[in-house]
UniProtKB/TrEMBL annotation:
InterPro entries: XG_FTase. Belongs to the glycosyltransferase 37 family. Gene3D superfamilies: 3.40.50.11340. GO terms for biological process: cell wall biogenesis; cell wall organization; xyloglucan biosynthetic process. It comes from Leersia perrieri. It holds the Pfam family XG_FTase. The chain crosses the membrane at residues 53-71. The keyword Cytoplasm does not apply. Its EC number is 2.4.1.-. PANTHER family: FUCOSYLTRANSFERASE, FUCOSYLTRANSFERASE 2-RELATED. This is Fucosyltransferase.
Amino acid sequence: MEMMTGGGGSVPKAKLDDDQEAAEREPWLLAATASGGHAPERETKGKEQWRRVLFIGCLVTLPLIAFFILGRESASAVFQIASAKLTSFNGASGLTTNASQCHHDGVSKKKVVDELLGGLLPPNMDRRTCRSRYESSQYYKHFPYAASPYLLSKLRAYEARHRRCAPGTPLYAKAIDQLRSNPNRSVESTECRYIVWLPFDGLGNRMLSMVSGFLYALLTDRVLLVDLPQDSSDLFCEPFPGATWLLPPEFHGVVGLDLFRLGPSPDISYTSLVASNRIKNATVATPAYVYLSLGYQMTDGLFFCGDDQRELAKVNWLLLYSDLYFVPSMYAVAEFNDEFRRMFPGEFKESACHLLARYLLHPTNAVWGMVTRYYDTYLAGSDRRIGVQIRMFGFGSIPVNDMYNQILACSRQEHVFPETTDDDDDQDVATTPNSNNNNSTAVAILIASLYPDYYERIRATYYEHAAKGGVRVGVFQPTHEERQATQMLFHNQKALAEIYLLGFCDELVTSGMSTFGYVGSSLAGVRPAILLPAHGHKVPATPCRRAVSMEPCNLTPPRVEMECRGKAVDKEDLARHVKVCEDYDKGVKFFD
């Protein structure tokens, strides 16, 4: 559903007509052609190019000078400041690396993009089987953080470990044989230990628990395998080079369990095993596999205790059942603190999901085609893209009109949507010279919702009232499925496409407590305006809050009164970096 309204004109579609090969071969010639003239004199261009060379040379040598004059620490600081500092959020101009940055004359200007995202992605993976991996950098608008050198080293080490231990390798076959022969005893000193991700809840929940499970694998030197059902079989590309992350179907038969039906409280969950003295007991062997129930019921809160982590380290296979982003709660495990600080140093705590989601989750070609076709057709020609994600929960449902008014109140509070004129000003805007030319600003508002009501109302607003300043506003909604159908692959593919379209927006308004919105803002690298839930079906007095951190909220952290043994955590550091969420006072999230 699409409509272009406001300001008296439609958004011009960008023309991708720059000759990249010619630019690389004869840059001076392309510059002359673009300006409508002839090739400039060689001498003048030569001077300009020499100035660029000297400028780049200064940038390259600056860290080296710092190293020799100020010492190693200062040189390291220069590198970090130069490459990994937060550059902008919401409205400030960040490291824009759009492959196609549109201009008002309808001509796009090519920008150099780093398709590896600063070394985050491994190079030389097959482009044909997964186009999104190396093309997504052309669509992201914000690159607020670069991965730390230590995180990059952990990712490369993980990839090597995954290649050694993945299904189809001799080490995996050995691990399966050991599991089959004795499921009640873990093998000591095994090279390959695994965490198996199991599907639970909706797509947003699944993506956040995947990222959480992957970070746990990085922290504990395990290998992440995913047990994907049919409804998720064609959503994500293989993320790791040279090996699969898919758990072979026969694993269910090896353990003698239907892992998709165990639910939150099976008798093989870690807490059940502890309660029945089948683990953490010197007189019994450590079982070969343990089920971790870390969903919203939080059955296995002991997982977040240091002494229990030491016990779980002995287990060869961990089966992860979760619908949460439980990363902030892992920071409370003192044994993980040093690794956390090195992977996400200083002010980089809020980059955890942002970086790991961009590394791990890449839509398949089927989904990527939906994303790029829609973006290139409806969004690419705009100067600014605003994503609005609306989710109505059963516990907080309110009438459509109330929700619409809350969205508008949030927009006014946070200055999100273009302002509209009143009726008396409409005629003035319509007759203003040049209000309909290509020099006016074009704004696209993307609506992601199960229902069409909000799209229709926002579209009507800009149809009935002009936007101030001659701004041309287009309102778009790719789908309105009416109900969530997680068990259907095509529904999930369309949902994933919308998550990535949100991730390619300049600014976001998302629904509080919505994992769909959490993933979208993490991929986008923005701090969204979060619509507060209508608890008790009452419209909140404050319509929304601007997120202080772009990290997702862990909606069900372990109980505060739970006592843990093991290494003492730095409570002051914990209180500084793990705080109550902006949208839910019982949840916690990472803050810088």
